From TrEMBL:
Single GO MF annotation: hydrolase activity, hydrolyzing O-glycosyl compounds
InterPro entries: 6-hairpin_glycosidase_sf, 6hp_glycosidase-like_sf, Gal_mutarotase_sf_dom, GH15-like, GH65_N, Glyco_hydrolase_94_b-supersand
Domain of life: Bacteria
Gene3D superfamilies linked: 1.50.10.10, Glycoside hydrolase, family 65, N-terminal domain
Residue span, GH15-like domain: 285-642
Pfam families registered for this protein in UniProt: GH94_b-supersand, Glyco_hydro_15
Name the UniProt record assigns to this protein: Glycosyl hydrolases family 15
Organism: Neomoorella glycerini
Domain Glycosyl hydrolase 94 supersandwich, chain residue ranges per copy: 68-231
Keywords tagged on the record: Hydrolase
GO terms of biological process kind: carbohydrate metabolic process
């Protein structure tokens, strides 16, 4: 089930699904480790001898965010139980604390006792071995702990502490877990368990007819027990209500810190722009890693996840953030990149949030020969994004620190890792991580990355390298024009493959990544060959259903839902569709020309989840989210498309025809 709430502060990240089940808890890194792993930490209710979990279909639920904040809400009503529950929740913006404020409304015409149950299914450090959960009678809290990780759980029902607790084993020797103990409304209270463990807290409210009662609840994450206890005392002294209000105020200030005149964009687009900035922030670790996604349900498909930092995704997210004015976040990413860059000046496929090498499926052997298992566009796009970051923010520290540590080794690699006959990059894996060859997207990225490196070399006073990088970029640009254009098709092609005998085999597959030729300025916008290419992409990859949108490429197999390629050449992807919006923006010569881009922005806003999440892709017929949700790159593509739209509109209003 897609994630509908992402609540975080750069160290602690907690995800909820649309049924308000807590599904992921990451600490101390965003994206690692996951101490829930997709299981369901949930809330249940007992009244009049009947029990119901909040995820039950008997509840009418709305799950979302308070406007322009990272404070979530759940509004739930159970007609049979005559109860209404309203919840506000958040991760504190500064401290590693999850906070929830629960209001219970007795809709019945009689007084009743209502009990709420909070179930905790933690698997600390992603292993069920050696966990401990215990009740601490002095502090009157529950504590889950293992090897430098402490999750302390506490709460209040009005002025009263919890009613009952239970600890137990789960998924071992037939033990289902303490959630089963809760369903009779009574917890047995065993004070400690170890191994594969879980726990449940309950709170009791006595409510008159029509009366409301309040429960506050919190989880403290810490690396030692002393720190956990201090944070628990801090919550008790400050109050959950006040901490939630402070968190809401902080995020409203953050999301509006730069201010934007959104001119003619509709409110739904503006709302999604702000939501996208906030979602992106939750997926960034304070030490610099930008995570692709933290929705662990993808584990059911591949036994791996998206909780890694792909340098490509990170670079494109950083580009969007720099355009939006959040350079304090992107600087940390570029320093992270300088730490993980390989000695020879390239990036491998992906990295863990702590900077260690991530898992990979890219073979290091091709036709019996050892090769570099890389996607060269990742190295190039980091340089391009870094150059853009400096141009927008003029942060001289980036040049001073990162030219020797990142720019010089990476750009030297890009220059050297080229085919001497073609001027183009040597073969590497494509951005979709599916095939190895020489691709238009990769080449456009290398072209843009080398030009950015040349500019930074000039600023760093390295005239020799400036000339070397610029000449190499020109050669890549010439290679793009010569080898990726098909006169027969009248457009650019996806790529070429070199056979053992040296013969070049073209790949004519229509691919949305050809948009990079325009967006990275590898081909002049006025070039009619580019216009014909983009027209082919817009028409040939359009999903011809009510869902609409643009597929990645003709015949895309990833999560394919239809073999009718005439109707659905692939599932619609947000990033691909939003690339098209950027193309329409770049080519606009008057305000009316911007309508095509605006319509795509509206399309994206209409297809976000109710809470404003953008998945990787959509089902072409039902429009439901597919793969992970949210995908950080999807939200970044939306932010970038909005920023490009606003910038171009300002240019046109100022009477400037060419972008």
């Amino acid at each position: 089930m897609p994630r509908e709430l992402a609540l975080g502060n750069g160290r602690l990240l907690i995800n909820f699904d649309a049924e308000f089940n807590m599904r992921d808890l990451y600490y101390p890194y965003v994206g690692w480790p996951n101490h829930i792993g997709g299981e369901k930490n949930r809330l249940g209710c007992w009244v009049d001898g009947h029990f119901s979990w909040l995820g039950s279909p008997d509840w009418e639920r709305q799950v979302g965010f308070e406007a322009d904040t990272l404070v979530g809400y759940c509004r739930a009503r159970h007609r049979g139980l005559e109860l209404e529950i309203n919840i506000n929740n958040a991760v504190h913006f500064q401290e590693d604390i999850y906070l929830a404020r629960v209001t219970v409304h007795n809709l019945a015409s009689r007084s009743r006792e209502v009990r709420l149950f909070f179930y905790h299914d933690f698997t600390l450090n992603e292993s069920p071995l050696g966990d401990t959960v215990t009740y601490l009678p002095d502090q009157k809290v529950l504590l889950h702990y293992k090897r430098g990780l402490y999750l302390l759980i506490n709460g209040r029902a009005g002025a009263n502490i919890f009613f009952q607790y239970a600890t137990g084993n789960k998924r071992f020797r037939g033990a289902e877990g303490t959630w089963r103990d809760a369903e009779d409304g009574w917890l047995e209270g065993h004070p400690i368990h170890h191994g594969s463990v879980d726990s449940t807290f309950s709170f009791r409210l006595q409510l008159a007819a029509g009366e409301r009662g309040e429960i506050t609840y919190w989880i403290v994450a810490a690396e030692n027990f002393t720190a956990a206890g201090e944070l628990n005392n801090w919550v008790l002294s400050q109050g959950v209500k006040n901490l939630l209000a402070a968190t809401a105020a902080y995020w409203r200030g953050w999301v509006y810190k730069n201010g934007r005149d959104f001119t003619d964009l509709p409110p739904a687009v503006v709302d999604l722009y702000h939501r996208s900035l906030l979602v992106i922030r939750t997926q960034i670790d304070n030490r610099g890693a930008i995570l692709a996604a933290t929705d662990s349900d993808i584990l059911a498909e591949a036994r791996d996840h998206y909780g890694y930092c792909w340098p490509r995704d990170g670079a494109l997210v950083a580009s969007a953030l720099d355009q939006a004015g959040y350079s304090e976040l992107t600087a940390s990413f570029f320093y992270y990149c300088s730490r993980v860059l390989e000695q020879d000046g390239f990036f491998y496929q992906k990295y863990n949030p702590d900077g260690s090498l991530g898992s990979s499926w890219l073979p290091p052997v091709h036709r019996g020969e050892r090769i570099l298992p890389i996607q060269e566009d990742e190295t190039a796009l980091v340089l391009w994004a870094l150059g853009q970051s400096f141009r927008l923010g003029r942060n001289w520290g980036l040049i001073h620190d990162l030219f020797p540590a990142l720019v010089r080794p990476a750009a030297d690699f890009l220059v050297d890792y080229r085919d001497p006959d073609l001027g183009l990059p040597l073969p590497s894996y494509d951005l979709w991580e599916e095939r190895r060859g020489i691709f238009a997207f990769t080449s456009a990225a290398v072209y843009a990355g080398l030009l950015a490196a040349a500019d930074m070399a000039r600023l760093a006073g390295d005239v020799g390298r400036e000339d070397r990088y610029r000449r190499a970029a020109v050669e890549v640009g010439e290679g793009i024009s010569e080898h990726f254009y098909s006169p027969d098709l009248g457009r650019f092609i996806r790529g070429i493959y070199r056979e053992d005998n040296g013969r070049l085999v073209p790949d004519f597959t229509l691919d949305a990544s050809l948009t990079a030729l325009a967006l990275l300025e590898a081909v002049p916008l006025a070039d009619p060959r580019l216009a014909r290419t983009m027209a082919a992409v817009a028409e040939g990859l359009q999903v011809k259903t009510e869902t609409g949108g643009l597929a990645r490429y003709t015949g895309d197999y990833y999560f394919r839902k239809s073999d009718n390629l005439q109707v659905a050449p692939g599932n619609p992807w947000f990033i691909c569709t939003l690339w098209l919006a950027e193309w329409y923006t770049l080519r606009a010569q008057n305000l009316n020309d911007l309508a095509a881009a605006s319509s795509i922005l509206t399309w994206a806003a209409e297809r976000a989840t109710p809470a404003g999440m953008l998945p990787e892709q959509l089902h072409p017929f039902t429009g439901e989210p597919l793969s992970v949700s949210p995908l950080t790159w999807s939200h970044a593509a939306f932010v970038s498309a909005v920023e490009k739209y606003l910038a171009r509109r300002r240019q046109l209003l100022a009477g400037k025809g060419a972008p």
